[in-house]
Amino acid sequence: MSQFLILAMLILAVAAAPEARAVDAEAGRRKAEVCAQCHGAAGNSTNPLVPSLAAQPALYTHWQLILFRDGRRKDPQMTQFAVNLSDTDMEDLSVYFAVQTPVVASGPGDPGTTAAGKRLVEAHHCNSCHAPGLVGQQHIPRLAGQHYEYLLKQLRGFKAQTRAELDGSMTTAAQPLSEEDIENLARYIAGLQPAP
User: Fold this and answer.
1) Is pLDDT of 30 > 50?
2) Over the range 156-185, which residues count as b (16 or more CB within 10 Å of their CB) and which as e?
3) 142, 136 in Cβ contact below 8 A?
4) Distances (CA, A) of 108 to 111, 138, 185, 186
5) Which of 112, 116, 120, 145 has a CA-to-CA distance to 82 between 20 and 30 Å?
6) Residue 144 near residue 135, CB atoms below 8 Å
7) What does pTM read for this prediction?
8) Closest CA to 34 of 85, 87, 106
């Protein structure tokens, strides 16, 4: 079975799940209290190596939790946390974080770096998957306004083929990037407004 078909089936399964029951955002808020220790209040991280979850598309957050729970994506803290989550917990958490208001982690970089990063986003068509402004959509994450250091780590992981993902598209996209490209991209994206 092709990776595309598997991905399509998984997306349909997750997308259909909220229709089976009403997702409880209040339950998500309660369940997210433990997440604030690393991801910050209302999902706005103050740790530069930890992503903000506020305004992430619910489907994206849900999928990352599944990947951590199943061991396909590994992190000492997240794997330990996700392994005990039910599908209902994941739905509630994902919906809660999706409706939180994001804050900008850092301001725009210097004009030269910003221009170089913007050119790379256009050249590699990042907007076609991550949506205009890189605010994310469906199972694709919001990048705009994430911490520079976090973005660097993720891009380097995709380049090194050590960062897990659903379909391999980011691993492929990162291969032609130089270290300077990665730094310019991360600096530019970190300075974008995280909400449309």
Assistant:
1) yes
2) bbbbeeebbbbeeebbebbeebeeebbbbb
3) yes
4) 8, 26, 12, 11
5) 145
6) yes
7) 0.84
8) 85
